[in-house]
C-alpha cells in the first residue's frame, strides 16, 4: 500500500497563531506515524475577497488554482480552524469558496478525506467554528470529514515548549484522530 500524503494548513496566518501551533503539532505527530506530510500557510496563497464580478472577469485567482492542485495531490487534509463569532475565519471561508470555484479537475473536496481541529483561548476550543467548517465541507462541498475532531480549549497554555499538547488526554485524542486520518487516507492512496 502506498504511503498516504497528508496536507495540513490553518485558517489563521497570525504571528503566534494557536491554530498554527495545532497544525505544527499535527505535522509532528503525522511524521512520527511515518506519513508523507506537507504543511502550508495560507499566507502564501493570498486571494481577494470572493466577488462574482471578479470571477466573471478573470476566473479564480492563480493562488486558488495552485491550492486546488496541491489539495488534489494529497489523500488526506487536516485543517486547523480558529473560531470567530462561532464561525470559521473569513480567511478560511474565502479560501474554501475560491477553491470551490476552480472547475478544472481534480475536485479537491472529493476522493480524499478531511480531518478538522481548532484551538481557542476560550473554553470551547473553537468547537462551534468546527461545526460551521464541517457543514461547509460536507453539506456544501460533499467532502468526507472524519466524525472525530479535536477542540483545544484554553489553548494559550495548551502547548509545551516542544510544540506538543501538554494534556495527555488531549494528546492521545489527537494521536487517535490522526491514526484514523492516515487509515482512511490510505484507501485513496492505493
Ligand atoms: C473577530 C473575532 C471573533 C472571535 N470570536 C471568538 C469566538 O466566537 N469564540 C472563541 O473561542 N474565540 C473567539 N475569538 C478569539 C480567537 O479564538 C482567538 O483570537 C484565537 O487566538 C484565534 O486563533 P489564532 O490564535 O489561531 O489566530 C475571536 C477573535 C476575533 C478576532
TrEMBL record:
**Which top-level group of life is the source organism from?**
Bacteria
Does this entry carry the keyword Ion transport?
A: no
| Segment forming the signal sequence | none
What Pfam family is a match, any one? FMN_red
For this protein, what is any one GO molecular function term? FMN binding
NADPH-dependent FMN reductase-like domain location: 4-155
Which Enzyme Commission number(s) are on file for it? 1.-.-.-
Q: Which PANTHER family match?
A: CHROMATE REDUCTASE, NAD(P)H-DEPENDENT FMN REDUCTASE LOT6
This protein's name = NAD(P)H-dependent oxidoreductase
Amino acid at each position: 500500500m502506498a504511503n498516504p500524503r497528508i496536507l495540513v494548513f490553518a485558517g489563521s496566518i497570525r504571528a503566534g497563531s494557536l491554530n498554527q501551533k495545532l497544525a505544527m503539532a499535527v505535522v509532528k505527530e503525522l511524521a512520527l506515524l511515518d506519513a508523507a506530510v506537507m504543511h502550508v500557510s495560507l499566507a502564501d496563497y493570498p486571494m481577494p475577497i470572493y466577488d462574482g464580478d471578479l470571477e466573471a472577469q478573470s476566473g479564480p485567482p492563480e493562488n486558488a488554482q495552485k491550492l486546488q492542485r496541491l489539495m488534489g495531490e494529497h489523500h488526506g487534509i487536516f485543517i486547523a480552524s480558529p473560531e470567530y463569532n462561532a464561525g470559521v475565519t473569513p480567511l478560511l471561508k474565502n479560501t474554501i469558496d475560491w477553491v470551490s470555484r476552480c472547475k478544472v479537475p481534480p475536485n479537491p473536496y472529493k476522493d480524499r478525506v478531511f480531518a478538522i481541529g481548532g484551538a481557542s483561548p476560550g473554553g470551547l476550543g473553537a468547537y462551534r467554528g468546527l461545526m460551521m467548517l464541517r457543514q461547509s465541507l460536507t453539506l456544501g462541498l460533499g467532502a468526507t470529514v472524519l466524525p472525530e475532531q479535536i477542540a483545544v480549549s484554553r489553548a494559550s497554555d495548551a502547548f509545551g515548549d516542544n510544540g506538543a499538547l501538554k494534556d495527555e488526554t488531549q494528546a492521545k485524542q489527537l494521536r487517535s484522530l490522526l491514526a484514523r486520518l492516515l487509515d482512511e487516507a490510505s484507501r485513496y492512496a492505493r
